[in-house]
Amino acid sequence: MTGLSIRNVHKSYGNVPVLKGINIDVAEGEFLILVGSSGCGKSTLLNMIAGLETITQGEIAIGGRVVNDLPPKSRDIAMVFQSYALYPSMTVRENISFGLEIRKVAPEERKRIVEAVAESLQISHLLDRKPRQLSGGQRQRVAMGRALARDPTLFLFDEPLSNLDAQLRIEMRSEIKMMHKRTGKTVCYVTHDQVEAMTLGDRIAVMKDGVVQQLGRPQEIYDAPANMYVAGFIGAPPMNFIPGTLEGEGSGLVMSIDTGAERRRLALPFRPADVKARPGQKVVLGLRPERITAAGASTSDPLKVRVDMTEPTGPDTLIYATLNGKRTLCRVQPFAAPKAGEAIALDFDLSRALLFDPESGARLDGGLAG
Amino acid sequence: MRPDKLVARIAIYAVLGFFALIFLAPLYVVLVTSLKTLPELRVGTMLALPQGLNFDAWGKAWSSACTGAACNGLQPFFMNSVYIVIPSVIISSMIGSINGYALAQWRFPGSEIIFTGLLFGFFIPFQAILLPAAQFLGMLKLANTIPGLIIIQTVYGIAFCTMLFRNYYVAMPLELVKAARVDGAGFFRIFWRIFLPISLPIFTVCVIWQFTHIWNDFLFGVVFSGPESRPITVGLNNLVNTSEGVKEYNVDTAAALITALPTLIVYIIGGRYFIRGLTAGAVKG
Ligand SMILES: Nc1ncnc2c1ncn2[C@@H]1O[C@H](COP(=O)(O)OP(=O)(O)O)[C@@H](O)[C@H]1O
Ligand SMILES: [Mg+2]
Could you tell me which residue ranges the ABC transporter domain spans (chain A) (predicted)? Predict the structure, then answer.
């Protein structure tokens, strides 16, 4: 049995299509992330799962049951919102038990559930306060408590952490992860934050303009993005996209790189037969910053690069350089970092390099996984 | 404080005090006149203080002054106004708040068009609806009755009340309704349990506004009332225009004050909340 199944779902507002055929199957107990830039239709999809928006076309099933025509309260879901949406005139206790009260849970049972939930979220001392007397983090916990009290088969989260400061966000992130481990319930979680997506999700659906660009495990999406949009969206700092022209050399493929300090042809690790591009064609080379590091004794063929700017992050230092006219980030150990204006010898690890079409953004190398 | 600043401060207070006096002068004249006897009025100037606190004129205005043929004072008119104002204010505020909640929080197809229509209704002049309204009341067999006036005042007030509440509720996040719907609550339960309890400030504004408006209304009152249902503004008009020989200014001014008293009291009690309610929406929005 699947936890959630979204089949060919479309949504239009008037004549404007917002979702253009979404297909996602979520296993029972799985943590699915919907991620994408603002306005791509994440909230719309989540609201349709919740029953807060009508489904223009397609089918949504929760726990094996098609819910297209069921109202939200009959879908056995709970939802946490970005603004928390706590009822302002009710105390924390009343907020958490409101849904139970409507479903006619007996008062003693309600009390027991509220107290157990409050205990698990460490908000027992706040039960008699009003929402306006709470800090952002506490409100967030109450919103979680309201969802937990319902004990649904499916949890829906719409950017629940984006109103918190960085510190609290990390804390609540791990708490949500622990809650998922503890309850084992299916979760559908919307975020525009790719770090949240990577750390929380069993699987991630990357969306753009109402279309799922890629659906896969976090590492899969990181290592083998389906196209340039996904490659650029997942990962911080983002993947480098170095423009160039594909050239043939012997039986292999190469690409010229102008670093500002020297000009060289780098051998690409792709078999010409696998690559959906011919020599002479313009391509984009995708390479993550951590694949460009300071050359060491073992580097066979270091490349000299002029440094535009450096950015120490603590564990390592980011180096900005210009390759083929495009700003490129490299990640080096702090002790190896030069100053701006100096040159540095870099080790380009092309074993994980990707090749994209500059026009369509499609992957051109044959290493497409999954 | 530096001397030049002090001078500026004194000048500001002098100007403010001067204008306050100008605005208060008519009230002062009306008040002292209502406390004087007729002989006193003949000899003294308008601004002179009365010789004592003499409420005879007030008594006469309330219960025995002539308003046309009848000589029962303002009392029956006052009670008519009370019977008209209280239900009209309550009903128009309640309907306005539910309308405003629906328009702001449920955004159904066409809700913007309805809101624009209501705004339009808000700007329709009284005079334009007199004839159709009279026909309508005739059809209901409520012409010249208090229930008829209640209906007219309520309907005319709904547009304004709806706009007031809509603008208040539109500042609340739409996610509140979504959360409550997921919790299993419906349209009216969400209104009753979530929106109504946070509506006190805007209710105060609406009630004060509607009370003042309906209490002070003359046009509807004179057009749609019969001998038994005339509101106090019509009573005051009749009282002032009925004279048997000598003009009793003390009774006229006492009657004017009696007419104005309820709105004054409502303002004094609710004024603070009025300002707070008007600005509450603005701050959040
Ligand atoms: N009620 C609505 N009417 C018309 N367009 C809407 C409505 N709700 C959302 N949209 C549009 O749908 C698109 C997706 O919105 P949304 O799902 O909120 O995006 P996201 O949550 O990914 O930021 C946006 O372009 C938005 O303008
Ligand atoms: Mg959103």
Answer: 4-234
ipTM more than 0.85?
yes
Domains of chain B, with CATH numbers?
Answer: 3-54 (no CATH), 70-282 (1.10.3720.10)
The reported pTM is 0.86
* Count of CB pairs separated by less than 8 Å, A with B: 60
The CATH number assigned to the domain holding A105 equals 3.40.50.300
Q: Check if B176 contacts A (Cβ < 8 Å).
A: yes
Q: In terms of pLDDT, which residue wins out, B6 or B123?
A: B6
pLDDT surpassing 90 at residue B105? yes
Work out the angle between the directed axes of helices B200-216 and B232-241 (0-180°, nearest 10). Answer: 30
The answer to whether B49 contacts chain A (CB < 8 Å) is no
Structural domain contains residue A14: yes
My answer on whether A83 and A100 are in the same domain is: yes
pLDDT, position A370: 35
Per-residue pLDDT band for B277 (boundaries 50, 70, 90) equals: low
B22-40, pLDDT tens digit by residue? 999 999 999 999 998 888 8
The domain that contains A280 carries what CATH number?
Answer: 2.40.50.140
**Which protein residue has the closest C-alpha to ligand 1 atom 8?**
A44
User: For residue A271, what are the domain limits?
Assistant: 240-356
pLDDT above 80: residue B275: no
Q: Evaluate whether residue A324 is within a structural domain.
A: yes
What CA–CA distance (Å, rounded) separates A160 from B104? 24
Cβ-contact B87, B95 below 8 angstroms? no
**Average pLDDT estimate for B240-267:** 89
Closest CA to ligand 1's atom 18? A43
CA B96 to chain centre: 16
Ligand number, closest to the Cα atom of A34: 1
Quote the CA–CA distance of A12 and A163 in Å, as a whole number: 28
The residue of chain A nearest to residue B179, with distances taken between CA atoms, is A85
The rounded mean pLDDT for chain B is: 89
Check whether residue A229 and residue A172 sit in a common domain.
yes
Same-domain pairing of A300 and A342: yes
Tell me the pLDDT tens digit for each residue of B133-166.
Answer: 999 999 999 989 999 999 999 999 999 999 999 9
Residues A180 and A253 in one domain: no
Domain count across chain A: 2
Return the closest-CA partner of residue A13 out of A44, A47, A35, A50.
A44
Q: Which residue, among A164, A189, A167, has the nearest Cα to A176 in the 3D structure?
A: A189
The Cα–Cα gap between B91 and B234 comes to 23
Q: Which of A85, A146, A150 sits opposite B175 (nearest CB)?
A: A85
Q: How far is CA A62 from CA A3, A26, A103, in A?
A: 6, 9, 20
pLDDT for A1 equals 61
Positions in chain A short of pLDDT 70: 1, 368-370
Contact at CB, A81 and B197, closer than 8 angstroms:
no
Q: What is the nearest CA distance from A73 to chain B, expressed in angstroms?
A: 5
